[in-house]
Specification:
By secondary structure, the protein is an alpha+beta fold. It is built from eleven helices and 17 strands.
Length: about 375
């Protein structure tokens, strides 16, 4: 056992090159090409992850509409409250026209003045904005989700490098958590350490879920704090952001010597995760990866389907600027796996009232198949 404060002193900020202006410009060009193929005159990017993906801007969602229009020739039109203009001008990475509105004015009139015809909306656009835009004369509103998702789910070399750095850092935090666990520690203390460790590593903490004993059976934990006891199953799920990109990694192990039952459950989960990894081949539909994990658990007597004891949720999700994004590793997602896709493999085994095991690792696809960002777990008594 090691002291968490002492471990923190060993951490220093990690480094990775941020996304450059040239890559942002290339993304916009590809989006504009997709718009022209689809007969779309413009795409609205609200204050969410896709705005960051295409422009590098990070804006907070509020009751005021704030974002960017992308026109089919690739030109950018930034829409902002006038009092936010000085701040926006200091943040802009790519040149574009800036149109403003005063507090008493209707900002949605700006849309009709900039574009007519088919306007595709970022799927993260709030309904209170989307409904006002859809009511404007001269505009036919449609969704931009498919165009955006097709690009965002294929990560560039620069994105993969950021993700690798972020994942390496969180893997290091996972190992530090295990090294510092002690009898009687509170889950909240461990979560506080996880946040502090990511800050020391130069990252922005995103979340930390720490569960002990029976609480490990519930995918999103329990609403009360817990105290670690000898023999408890321990589940630690964490993530942080580096240049906006997320890490995400879960480990489950026993604090002490695993019982035969704990060993069995852990082994079943481990086999399911490895089966999903083996099924992830270029061209294979995402749902086949979910099916491979579920088949292992069902053969071991769990399930079937989403029944518990068993796997009550999807096997994985994409990862990038959002902690959860496409592709989805679940029945019904027939998206063929392709090089550059990044997604989790986490076929959690839940036994309500007893314990659960989730081993979550992120993989990225190559021409030759999947690759782990971090080494997967190997035994039920360590990370």
């Amino acid at each position: 056992m090691r002291d968490y404060d002492a471990i923190l002193n060993e951490f220093s900020p990690v480094r990775a090159d941020p996304i450059g202006a040239e890559e942002y410009s290339g993304r916009l060009e590809r989006l504009a090409a997709a718009m022209r193929r689809s007969g779309v005159e413009g795409v609205w990017l609200d204050a969410a992850a896709s705005l960051t993906y295409y422009t590098g801007l990070v804006l907070g969602l509020s009751e005021r509409i704030h974002g960017a229009l992308v026109l089919k020739d690739g030109a950018l039109v930034y829409v902002t409250p006038n009092f936010e203009r000085p701040k926006l001008e200091s943040m802009v990475r790519l040149p574009g026209k800036i149109v403003v509105w005063e507090e008493h004015e209707d900002p949605f009139a700006l849309f009709a003045a900039q574009v007519t015809g088919r306007l595709a909306l970022d799927p993260d656009t709030p309904f209170r904005f989307a409904s006002r835009i859809a009511a404007l004369p001269g505009l036919t509103v449609t969704g931009a989700e498919q165009m955006i998702a097709e690009q965002r789910r294929i990560k560039s070399a620069a994105e993969l490098a950021i993700l690798q750095t972020a994942m390496d850092a969180s893997y290091r935090v996972q190992k530090a958590v295990h090294a510092g666990l002690r009898l009687g520690v509170r889950a909240s203390e461990v979560a506080d350490f996880i946040a502090a460790a990511h800050v020391a590593l130069g990252m922005s903490p995103a979340f930390a879920a720490v569960q002990f004993g029976e609480a490990t059976a519930y995918p999103h934990g329990v609403p009360h704090d817990q105290v670690l006891a000898s023999g408890d199953m321990v589940l630690v799920d964490m993530g942080a952001r580096l240049h906006g990109y997320h890490s995400d990694i879960t480990r489950t192990y026993v604090f002490g010597t695993p019982t035969a039952r704990q060993q069995h459950l852990w082994d079943c989960e481990h086999r399911a995760q490895l089966a999903a990894f083996a099924a992830a081949r270029p061209g294979t539909p995402c749902e086949a990866v979910d099916r491979a994990a579920r088949d292992v658990l069902e053969a071991a007597g769990f399930g079937p389907g989403y029944a518990v004891p068993g796997l009550p949720h999807r096997t994985g999700h994409g990862l990038g600027l959002n902690i959860h994004e496409g592709p989805w590793i679940v029945q019904g997602d027939k998206t063929p796996l392709a090089p550059g896709m990044c997604f989790s493999i986490e076929p959690m085994l839940c036994v309500y009232g007893e314990c659960g095991v989730r081993l979550e690792d992120i993989v990225y696809m190559t021409e030759a198949g999947p690759r782990w960002f971090c080494p997967p777990a190997e035994r039920p008594d360590g990370p």
